[in-house]
Amino acid sequence: MQFQPELDSELEEPLYRQLSAYFARLIESGKLATGERLPATRELAGQLGLNRTTVSAAYELLETEGLITGHVGRGSFVAARRIAQGPDWERLLARPAWQASWASAAPISFSASRPPEDLFPIEDFRKSVAEVLASGRLEAMLQLGPPGGYEPLRQYLLEEARQEGSLGAEDDLLITNGCQQALDLLRRVLVRTGTRVAIEDPVYPGLKNVLREGGAELVGFQDVARTAGAAILMLTPNFQNPTGLTMPLESRELALRTARDQRMVLVENDIYSRLRYEGEAQPAIKQMAPGAGTVLLRSFSKISFPGLRLGWVIGPRPLIAAMRETKQLTDLHSDQFSQAVMLRFAESGRLAAHQARAIAAGQERLQVALASVARWLPAGSRWTRPQGGLNLWVTLPDGLDSGTLLARAQREGVAYLPGNLFAVERPHTSSLRLSFGGVAPEQIARGIEILGQVFEDERKTRQWAEETPMPAMV
Amino acid sequence: MQFQPELDSELEEPLYRQLSAYFARLIESGKLATGERLPATRELAGQLGLNRTTVSAAYELLETEGLITGHVGRGSFVAARRIAQGPDWERLLARPAWQASWASAAPISFSASRPPEDLFPIEDFRKSVAEVLASGRLEAMLQLGPPGGYEPLRQYLLEEARQEGSLGAEDDLLITNGCQQALDLLRRVLVRTGTRVAIEDPVYPGLKNVLREGGAELVGFQDVARTAGAAILMLTPNFQNPTGLTMPLESRELALRTARDQRMVLVENDIYSRLRYEGEAQPAIKQMAPGAGTVLLRSFSKISFPGLRLGWVIGPRPLIAAMRETKQLTDLHSDQFSQAVMLRFAESGRLAAHQARAIAAGQERLQVALASVARWLPAGSRWTRPQGGLNLWVTLPDGLDSGTLLARAQREGVAYLPGNLFAVERPHTSSLRLSFGGVAPEQIARGIEILGQVFEDERKTRQWAEETPMPAMV
């Protein structure tokens, strides 16, 4: 191979670097293959009319970059794929399997618990942004801010909490990047290896995974007896994810009492409560006893714009102070411009107006979902009857496995999340979550019809296999 | 005390809850003090014309909430401060001291390494927002997005990296909430208890604290010999925080070679490089060998709007994949609306225009800062001579302690960060960081003049004390 680098001694970049870059391009593009020998430095220096030290310096740099390897007396050779010489990522990044992501896509997807974007009040959002832009406080919003959150939004949320009776006298409030960050910060300040945490089973994977990453020992919470020895009890009393169920008032009181007696931290994830479509409103546990040290998580994500990532947490001052310090380590603070826009959206009454529309839409979707599962799912299927929220929990009959059936459902154009993703102690392999909230009503009906066919086919196949005697093996 | 609750049996809220809320308010407001006895249930029921079970239920709820304690046969008493009965926060939240925050305020504050907000191009920001609002892609931005970042911005940054030669063939890119989150995610995927990390000494507290939270063993990096056994080497080659210094090209090459030889992960924090005021530009280490596995951190915070919290990280695919999964656990993804606005701000050329103005302003401020320290600091003081960035590192003579002097400086109206906050292995008690970038030139001059007087006073007092013989103790 003839080497003809375009070298220019007039450039600021020294010749040896120009030469090394020339070879690097040849190697990266594959024109010089692994194992090929580079010309000896003396030889190349002669060919190109360069000083031999220039060629040596270029080779040395290529070696540093791992592109070539030098063998004394034998010359320099193009190295094997460089990545193998860098850090040993496989060893460095070894992680338990629970960190696998759980996305599953299809034309009709019931897999994300999110509000429908076609209902987003875009004009009201635009107005809110325009009002913030006109406010003349932009410099402060765009500058580095305090870790606790954009103070006007924080004050607005504090006042709202005061009015609804969810702010204890010893409480403070921290703004987070959605509820997920509140969960993450809680685990960072409260969970050490072996810390026992009682959580619902099934439960949202983002909750159990973040706790497991912190080394928590998870206990499925069925009744308060299971909380013995737990330092933390985490509940979603309103429209739980994934079941959609609501906790009765008496169970809330019992949980509160148990937390108090055992001095457990009671964390109440309450991000769905404003999406009630029917039945009587239940108070948050926090509202039942604002001073009892309960930690309340709220978010704008389910009731407005999840893309802005805004939530908040209310709890005792020492806890909020520790979370705020950790928030500073994590990302300094949340985006202030979006906080200002969200404040405007809320205090202008646009959030409340949107919420009314979201409730009407959710109600319709829930009804379509319930009617469709009743009509299309195989006999023996069971499902929850949520009074609000975005999720429905279905359990299939005859040991049908929702995990193995997912691939078939996806081939038919429908996705959901299989139950095993939500498992804490029980396997939930026959269950699945249908997040109906973000799907249009006609798609909900069509999607569940398709799922019903997929599940029914499998059920029949199994039945046939069970009922048909196997031929003798010959 | 006469109890006159306003109870209304027409309300949805049961009477026992109304009654318990009445007592809760009396106790929380202090009108019923700790230790006071509540009327017997029979007695109160008679007074208020209630069923006795209603009063009992109210008392039971108050007990659940920890507001009163019942003693059989003696009655119910207002409990001692309730916080004592909740979770034991002091034990639960026990944290090492390194998590203390490091804010220090004063009328003239050199304590935050941030750009000046009076230079923010507010009109250009407004235009960028308006263009995003008009773009018709709002629904997708406001909906839940992918953990890797808002894809159009991610593609823009990937292309920029390709063009400047900082994207290796095996690399990927993740958008983070500023550089701080990139550091936090790196430590979450790479650092376990005892992982050895070599970092500069002195170094930015947000870096060392996040590493320490993860259990890292920190080694002050003075030369490559100190890196033996380290899994990670973290450097800020351009305008380091706090020193403001630039790493010579040869040292960068040596660091690269050492990282390669020892298979260390080399993390390059490069958030200041675009703020060069003088001298020749140096390539990022990542640009010197894009395929060598180096991890590059960048941010919009120092060159535009820190309040939006936007940064990004470029590195080998397996690493970025692990960080992306962890990002999902942490906060799902970064705010998409601000990402869209920042993309518009950058691709419209407004960011580049602002950068030119930021460089001119920074240059002036650096010169004022250097002239002022030369003029006002006590004889024997030393300081760095940065060619860019936002920070200057000063070391005082005669063992003056910047930590103890801070309170006096603040009383005189000037704040800075004392050197011990930046300490890894060496104490740096005589040093301090002056973040001049965000301070107006006349304030820089005035602030350093005041500091000079405070430090000089202390020096003279000490000298006097040393030179004056102590009288005999009688």
Secondary structure layout:
The structure is a homodimer of 474-residue chains.
Chain A: H1 15-28, H2 41-48, H3 52-64, E1 68-71, E2 75-78, H4 89-92, E3 108-109, H5 122-133, H6 138-142, H7 151-164, E4 171-176, H8 178-190, E5 196-200, H9 205-213, E6 217-221, E7 232-235, H10 249-262, E8 265-269, H11 285-288, E9 295-299, E10 311-316, H12 317-331, H13 336-347, H14 350-376, E11 382-383, E12 391-395, H15 402-411, E13 414-415, E14 417-418, E15 431-435, H16 441-467
Parallel strand pairs in A: 3-13, 5-6, 5-7, 7-8, 8-9
Antiparallel strand pairs in A: 1-2, 4-10, 9-10, 11-12, 12-15, 14-15
Task: Tell me what you see in this structure.
The structure is a homodimer of 474-residue chains. Chain A has 16 helices and 15 strands. By secondary structure, chain A is an alpha/beta fold. Chain A folds into three domains: 15-85, Orthogonal Bundle (Arc Repressor Mutant, subunit A), CATH 1.10.10; 120-349, Aspartate Aminotransferase, domain 2 (3-Layer(aba) Sandwich), CATH 3.40.640.10; 353-463, Aspartate Aminotransferase, domain 1. In chain A, α14 (350-376) packs parallel to α16. The longest helix of chain A is centred in the last third of the chain and has 27 residues, at 350-376. The mean pLDDT of chain A is 91.
**Could you tell me the radius of gyration of chain A in angstroms?**
30 Å
Q: Which second-level CATH architecture of the largest domain in chain A applies?
A: 3-Layer(aba) Sandwich
Low-confidence stretches of chain A: none
What percent of residues of chain A are in strands? 5-15%
Strand element count of chain A = 15
The number of helical elements of chain A comes to 16
Query: Within the largest sheet of chain A, what's the order of strands?
Result: 4-10-9-8-7-5-6
CATH superfamily of the largest domain in chain A: Type I PLP-dependent aspartate aminotransferase-like (Major domain)
CATH class category of the largest domain in chain A: Alpha Beta
Number of domains of chain A: 3
What is the fold-level CATH name, i.e. the topology of the largest domain in chain A? Aspartate Aminotransferase, domain 2
N-to-C terminal Cα separation of chain A, in Å?
Answer: 64 Å
Biggest sheet architecture of chain A:
7 strands, mixed
- Most extensive interface: pair and counts? A-B, 95 and 96 residues
**Morphology call of chain A:** globular
Oligomeric state: homodimer
Class from helix and strand fractions of chain A? alpha/beta
